[in-house]
User: What shape does this take?
Amino acid sequence: MSESTGITPTQYIHHHLSYWQVGHGFWTLDVDTLLFSVGLGSLLLLIMYLVVRRATSGVPGKWQSFLEVVLTGIHDNVKQVFLFDNPVIAPLAITIFIWIWAMNFLDIVPVDLFPRIAQFIGVHAFHADPEQVYLKVVPTNDMNMTFGLSLGVFVLTLYYSFAKKGILGYGKEFVTHPFEGPNLPAKLVLVIPNVAMNVVETVSKPLSLSLRLFGNLFAGEILFILIAMLGWWGTPLTLLWMLFHLLVITIQAFVFMMLSVVYLSMAHTTHDSHAH
Assistant: This one.
């Protein structure tokens, strides 16, 4: 694309890493991230609805068999980590994995395909400068998206922490663990390190979730862009990296899902009782 349009490699990379944005400052919206994430989510819901409508207790079709294998595998993994009775967690984990995997999968699409389509529409329908038409396809390459996903898990973690342990129970856990003194003076002295460590642990959970997913997908996109700059000579490299990247995007979706389940399991756990 850089050769055909006469732009430099730096401009080519910058163009592919720029978002279609609307608004200013804090209220800036990455329209492409919203478009592809919501669109994919809606498409997945439609597919699930159609498969469920056609599901049979007899010989299942290919789609039903595939979904049953995926859903059963996810459910079995969740049960090994989450030992509490909560009907929300398994469906949540399934939704997280499938939605994130689908968004990650868009990284496999040739990097120039959708930007070229957007440029064609922008030029012919809106008379826009083609170099000012931006479209990033992969929502999980956007830190706003990955942090939004992790923030949702974080809010649920706080909700279940208070719901299962109570305000006093969670507050006591926050100031008395992991260090517990043998007497009152020692307990009071240990309040400060306990609070400090719990604050760091609590804040690090959404940050680690979002940055891990963003970093891996962003790195993958950079490699696809660099290989695309080689033109047709880069086709073998593209195919090899695509095969490896399929494994990467699956692992990243699985890791995000399992860490979310682990954090939610920790929110259900009390230090004076077991799963119930």
The mean pLDDT is 86. The chain has one domain: 2-268. The longest helix spans residues 191-228.
